[in-house]
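stage 2 :: seqdesign
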């Protein structure tokens, strides 16, 4: 049965885009129970898919007819298919590997070269796996999902492929010498697996072993040791977690001469227990369950998410501690403090090279880099010189054998560049540089601070023309996220540049609480019952932009994805008078049922448990699906999602659209029927999606 078509949506959409061509749309479904749109949770039912196709036809017709759509889509396609993009690499054995997509390889090709050849301006690449060809040969919708190689030589790798771009993937063993899959080698069917090498003939495997083997979040809870030449069913159980856990996994240290195996039990999204597998037994590490731990040769490093009182001392939330592994297991607690945050500083990432730990911190949302090395039994720190306003990312070249590392630099207006750094020196060898995909000569960047209701200063960046007039008439796009301790950093976004900035628009990136810009405290300020803080911060930034006359409600639009999709939905529902366009991508929306759909249960630590009345009391106040009010007027909303997203269920967006349509609000919807959580898997899909997004925004806000 498919939904009948009525004039209801056509009338609502006509309010949104009067100049667009007419098209029919699906009507609301009849009530099945207290939630009339539960049927949209059946992802691939013909009824639901027919509803999706009708919406896609309508939205493509309307947004595709806008004056700027063709030009914007073409510009985005040129960017994503450009051969001048940086081919980022990872070193495996004697080669560096790159996964590359372009117009001739829309699904992508895994290729490799040597590091020395890579340093040249036009390196010669050897094809390892052509995913387009594999998809044609096997008649499967394969999307590349990654590789895991056996150190140090990487003669064997585990390749992961997903159907349509979801998180669930198949695993196959690949011979990098013969450039072919290993006949009779290690292979796993489609699942959200975690699999790691112990030796050439042994793996630690966490996967779907059958009924009862997954957590309530849909991830593996059982870890087994799997030996070559034996069926997966014969693998021996190493660890078994609880159904209420998030997941379990196992891995082995790869350092030469070190024989250590670990089990990681993720008891919630932000807590874990770690076990050392030694002499046939599992020994639990005595660390806070909110802390993460990892080894660096003979050292154990512990990163704290909360204050820790141990050994007669208090170590602060956000710190990084180091201690000899054997000493720690023997009961010693004389830690070296490699990092301690303050009100403006937070640790963003930790990278290991052969002999050093490289720390990337943010100071007021700007990057700084430090190296720590053990010298004569003592840790010594050196600060690395970097451009003052650049966003910096660090990754090792080969942490087993080299002190070299890759450094990526960019900012809002400076194209991304890749450099080869070396521990102990500020000299860096430029390797690759991305071309300027948009004209930034007339642009500037400002960092401003909006004052929240409680007096907290909320940073945000605004990218605009140097000659901008603060008269309230500038088309302005405000972006935000605000969750899971993820930081929003200044980065070069060619799509924003071509589709928005070059037209004269203002782009604003907010650093609201819930993110990681100032470490765990910034994140915890918006957890669970405090979630409204992140929405208030976002609204505060919007109000500040209006007060400073950067823009006005008529010209202000907002956009976000995933948790950020929920952020902009809530902001628009709570303060509709502030905005004139909303783009909500792969969002959460039905917070009464989010924990029952796909990976949703894994986020209870972030949002709360809607099955508990005390927690639903605060969740209900920001659940977009439940905030909708037929008696209020909202700005037009463009929702996007993906049928193949197996992380955030597409029903969140679907149900929001259905209810908004029912209530007569202005709404459009487009669901990519591939794409996973990223929403698109190739250049054509990206160009279409973002062509519609930015055409919609410009039409509303100009």
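stage 2 :: out
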């Amino acid at each position: 049965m498919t939904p009948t078509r009525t004039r209801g949506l056509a009338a609502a959409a006509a309010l949104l885009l009067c100049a667009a061509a007419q098209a029919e749309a699906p009507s609301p479904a009849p009530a099945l129970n207290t939630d009339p749109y539960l049927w949209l949770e059946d992802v691939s039912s013909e009824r639901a898919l027919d509803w999706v196709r009708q919406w896609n036809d309508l939205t493509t017709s309307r947004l595709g007819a806008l004056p700027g759509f063709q030009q914007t889509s073409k510009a985005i396609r040129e960017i994503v298919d450009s051969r001048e993009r940086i081919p980022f690499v990872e070193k495996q054995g004697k080669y560096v590997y790159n996964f590359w997509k372009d117009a001739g390889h829309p699904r992508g090709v895994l290729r490799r070269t040597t590091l020395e050849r890579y340093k040249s301006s036009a390196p010669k690449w050897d094809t390892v796996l052509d995913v387009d060809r594999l998809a044609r040969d096997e008649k499967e919708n394969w999307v590349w999902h990654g590789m895991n190689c056996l150190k140090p030589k990487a003669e064997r790798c585990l390749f992961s492929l997903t159907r349509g771009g979801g998180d669930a993937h198949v695993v196959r063993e690949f011979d990098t010498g013969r450039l072919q899959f290993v006949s009779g080698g290690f292979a796993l069917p489609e699942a959200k697996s975690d699999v790691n090498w112990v030796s050439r003939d042994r793996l630690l495997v966490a996967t779907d072993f059958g009924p009862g083997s997954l957590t309530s979040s849909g991830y593996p809870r059982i870890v087994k040791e799997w030996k070559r030449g034996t069926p997966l069913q014969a693998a021996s159980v190493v660890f078994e977690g609880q159904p209420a856990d998030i997941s379990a996994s196992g891995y082995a240290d790869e350092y030469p001469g070190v024989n250590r195996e670990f089990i990681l039990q993720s008891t919630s999204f932000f807590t874990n227990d770690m076990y050392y597998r030694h002499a046939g037994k599992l020994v639990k590490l005595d660390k806070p369950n909110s802390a993460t731990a990892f080894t660096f040769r003979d050292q154990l490093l512990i990163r704290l998410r909360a204050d820790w009182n141990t050994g007669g001392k208090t170590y602060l939330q956000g710190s990084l501690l180091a201690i000899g592994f054997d000493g720690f297991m023997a009961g010693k607690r004389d830690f070296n403090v490699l990092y301690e945050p303050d009100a403006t500083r937070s640790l963003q990432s930790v990278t290991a090279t052969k002999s050093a730990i490289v720390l990337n911190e943010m100071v007021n949302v700007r990057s700084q880099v430090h190296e720590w090395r053990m010298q004569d039994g003592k840790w010594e720190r050196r600060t690395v010189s970097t451009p003052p306003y650049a966003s910096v990312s660090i990754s090792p070249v080969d942490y087993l054998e080299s002190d070299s590392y890759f450094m990526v630099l960019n900012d809002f207006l400076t194209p991304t560049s890749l450099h080869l750094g070396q521990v102990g020196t500020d000299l860096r060898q430029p390797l690759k540089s991305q071309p300027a995909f948009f004209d930034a000569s007339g642009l500037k960047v400002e960092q401003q601070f909006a004052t929240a209701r409680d007096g907290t200063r909320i940073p945000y960046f605004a990218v605009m023309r140097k000659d901008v007039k603060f008269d309230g008439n500038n088309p302005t796009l405000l972006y935000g996220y605000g969750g899971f301790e993820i930081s929003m950093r200044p980065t070069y976004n060619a799509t924003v540049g071509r589709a928005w900035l070059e037209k004269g628009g203002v782009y604003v990136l907010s650093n609201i609480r819930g993110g990681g810009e100032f470490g765990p405290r910034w994140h915890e300020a918006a957890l669970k019952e405090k979630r409204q803080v992140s929405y208030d911060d976002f609204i505060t930034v919007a109000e500040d932009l209006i007060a400073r006359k950067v823009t006005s409600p008529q010209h202000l639009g907002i956009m976000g994805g995933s948790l950020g999709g929920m952020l902009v939905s809530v902001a628009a529902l709570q303060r509709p008078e502030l905005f004139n366009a909303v783009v909500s991508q792969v969002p959460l929306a039905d917070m009464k049922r989010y924990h029952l759909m796909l990976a949703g249960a894994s986020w209870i630590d972030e949002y709360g448990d809607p099955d508990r009345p005390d927690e639903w009391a605060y969740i209900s106040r920001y659940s977009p699906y439940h905030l909708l009010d037929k008696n209020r007027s909202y700005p037009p909303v463009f929702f996007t999602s993906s049928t193949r997203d197996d992380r955030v269920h597409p029903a969140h967006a679907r149900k929001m659209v259905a209810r908004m349509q029912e209530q007569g609000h202005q709404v459009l919807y487009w669901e990519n029927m591939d794409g996973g959580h990223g929403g698109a898997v190739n250049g054509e899909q990206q160009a279409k999606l973002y062509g519609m997004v930015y055409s919609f925004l410009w039409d509303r806000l100009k």
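stage 3 :: structure notes
- Residues 1-24, 27-32 have pLDDT under 50 and may be disordered.
- Residues 311 and 333 are 5 Å apart (CA to CA).
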